[in-house]
């Protein structure tokens, strides 16, 4: 691992908890970050989709960035989400993250109007010129509203400090096409939880996931099994957590992780409207899934 | 027309022009609004997708709202876009628009995380409780990221001041299903330019469109022909502008309207990054389309 | 109307009924064809999707073709479906239909392997060379498995006796694009029942539909209202049958028409497996829809 | 391996070659089958999509079935495709295949009208009742026109001799869902070439593929590497053939395999219209891909 590609393995995404009066609850947030570091995550990624980045004000984003870096305190690298609808906004947050000590920043080209490939390239290029920290280009049509082709991603990697790609289309063929197009040295990361096993098989450098909030032994265990080429163990660990991964994706990560943390006895704060908690029935279903996940894990 | 449904016919969408140093260019904006009123639009809708609502700060949005109402000065009703990712944000902008004198407000449930039907209902309900101005619920999966079913839209109409629906899925069957489900008194508006004729045939109350910036005689003419049950004339006027409607949708309304205005000799300001102007070739194509649109119009 | 474009208005599709021992029930079929002619249909189209063309043997198809032409006996033009997976097969059935007296033949490029544009062109060209009867090119990705672009359809129209296009994608914009690309003289037909009103507004020459089996006054009435430019009446007649059109499409035309005919007191024979009758609950739903459709029609 | 699940590993699909006058070329066919057996395939599957099953007459299908079983002569198990649009047709071909000595039969519920889950179940149930040979249920929406859900596939497996599932949606999550729903003993096969590595990682019993016609060392090598848990080797072998797998899928298996065989110096007969050979440019591209595939294979 070099300084241009400072992430590998399990990159864990904390949620952003809110107080009853709709402010960011930083003390609770720091406890949740500490849990992720303590359970062995190889990196921490604040202000992702899980962290409801687009629902936060600029000042709230700054506070979360600072709190993360203080709490992690250099134990693992921190990847800060700096996306914004305007290019000017991304530059502002990218600079703040760099100054705060982020090892890398993540940029998803958020859309409202569909951007052309050229607009996306200019967007990344202007951000990259403003900082020297490595950049992870993040493709997630379902949340960002734009689908960056492998060809465009290849072009983005020509920008010197764009060194990493996070793929969340949910299609393993897209990762394979990236690997094919870019060679085996490309650092690509899987952001689609149900594809964790397939992505590692395809050569992913890491897995960007909120699952370590709820089942860290399984997420870390899967990565270790793949590292040791123990495909049988990897497969067994993957299927053990597959139902949980499907659930948290289907229900939305912020809602599902908050509910899961509370079922595990952790304080997880409130959601920010329009997001609402899982229904009672959904919480019970998650409880049953967590029970099934935990039992074999402690037995294993 | 009653005060609960203050819009009919052609509701025109201005772009938001920017200065060279990335500020909102209010003088240019007011001239563009004046053009739309002067050419016979039946309503003005600032801060829509065409007006790059999501790329503006709260303060910029306030300034555009005030400038619109001052410029229009009661000649036609004004429909202000007040969407925001958070519920709190929508309430803030809804109140501002009401106090500024808007005849109605438009809310698209912007997504990042897919919202559940219940979250969307709560979102609208909280906004509706905070104001008394009529609300247009806007469905546009392509820009908003969420698709509200006819069933959900029916439920939203049970909120007293949610009285209008704007449908922009691009599927006329959706409008027909709404009309079927809600009865012939429902006020539904077409927001998909290439469906203008089909939507009026299906019973749409109005057409929300940026096209009057470039071809007002044709947009207004289509509405009048439909009103007079002259289907032959309506069809002829529609196909005369169909190529233009396809172009502005395909290229993105802010980019295409800006380019078109300049081709027509109007100042239209700058775009805000990441949006970039049309390429030279695209501008030439638009020029040819505008030539074809204009010639028969002056001849007819 | 000229001999190259022998169809306009309502082109009615009979089902193909089967006996209890899985043979084509020709006497019942002829009665159903007679009903369609008697209720004012402007054309009859055997061996379409409604007639379960792909489930019939070559000999059964020949028998249905002959029976149709004998029963119709020149009162209205007959459009025979001659599609087959192989080019040789289409040529065989096209020749048979021409010799039997069809006014036109319909060809949908059935797929299994997706065909290239060039393969589709060759397919039509070889069929067109083998007969002199006018050909309707039929685009229906949902049943045929292939989507022919407006550009490809334009190319097909360059083949001398390919003179008509039937569009069943369910997207009125596709018809508009055809009309835009091909000029107002193109003969295009709507094959998507829920788009009947929008398609006529867009300039369709005819509507290919199985609905006259169940509500002939409404289908013929809609066409007449459009001819007389009475948009209000057309809209009222359309919404009166819209629920029925949605139902028969959603449940599959052969199943739904058979069930509807029986609810109306007609014998409609058996379906051929794997097709099965509608469930009891579906039949009851259709009964309620037919009741609602009939009452206003007799009152109006 | 037991007699209910007689297939594992690489199940190879021959094309069906035709003579210049459009007849099945059985001598060429038998040579192509011999090549597949000789290069180590673990099973042979005539009359699949690759073998253009739907373009053949009943008599041609019988002849291909017999020729395959005679040529293979018990060296590996044979899986005969017996699909037909009608239930009666499937029963007929299923009985023929069983009597001819097939170890299993494959049924894809071919559509024209979308079939309901109940119709699909009845279809399989009637076929299964007519034979005692094990049945592989094949899901491939792209060619068959129907998408069978994991839940429906689970229901099909309750029919005693439906014992295997072939999944070709191209989505590895579907295979994972099957494995999750059905337990680790389910025999599922991957029919999507670009998913070969991901499917084996997910636990697939076998890979149904036409690729052994062109690169048997790589297909067989991938399976062996997975068996030996050598993930690094498996990944290397997969990427070595990935470009080829993408190409043959994108261009259509019958066209691409025929062209590839000829580039490798084999006679491969003609295609049946409407299928046409690859263009010259496509053949050259395939030639370059085959060159790249071969070189490392001989070096490795």
Provide an overview of this structure.
The structure is a homotetramer of 300-residue chains. In chain A, helix 1 crosses helix 2. In chain A, strand 6 (162-167), helix 7 and strand 7 (187-190) form a beta-alpha-beta unit. By secondary structure, the first copy, chain A, is α/β, with parallel strands linked by helices. Mean pLDDT of chain A is 95; it is low at 296-300. Chain A has helices at 26-38, 58-72, 87-100, 117-130, 141-144, 150-156, 172-182, 196-201, 216-227, 231-251, 253-263, 280-299, and strands at 9-12, 43-44, 79-81, 104-107, 135-139, 162-167, 187-190, 206-209. The interface between A and B is medium-sized, with 34 and 34 residues. Chains A, B, C, D: This is Dihydrodipicolinate synthase family protein. Chains A, B, C, D: Keywords: Lyase, Plasmid. Chains A, B, C, D: InterPro entries: Aldolase_TIM, DapA-like.
- Total discrete domains of chain A: 1
Number of helices of chain A: 12
Main β-sheet description of chain A: 8 strands, parallel
Reading the helices and strands of chain A in chain order gives EHEHEHEHEHHEHEHEHHHH
Class based on secondary structure composition and strand pairing of chain A: alpha/beta
The quaternary structure here is homotetramer
Query: How far apart are the termini of chain A?
Result: 31 Å
Low-confidence stretches of chain A: 296-300
Largest chain-chain contact?
Answer: A-B, 34 and 34 residues
The CATH homologous superfamily name of chain A equals Aldolase class I
Helical amount of chain A: 40-55%
Write down the CATH topology of chain A: TIM Barrel
Identify the CATH architecture of chain A. Answer: Alpha-Beta Barrel
Integer-rounded radius of gyration of chain A: 18 Å
Give the integer mean of the pLDDT values of chain A: 95
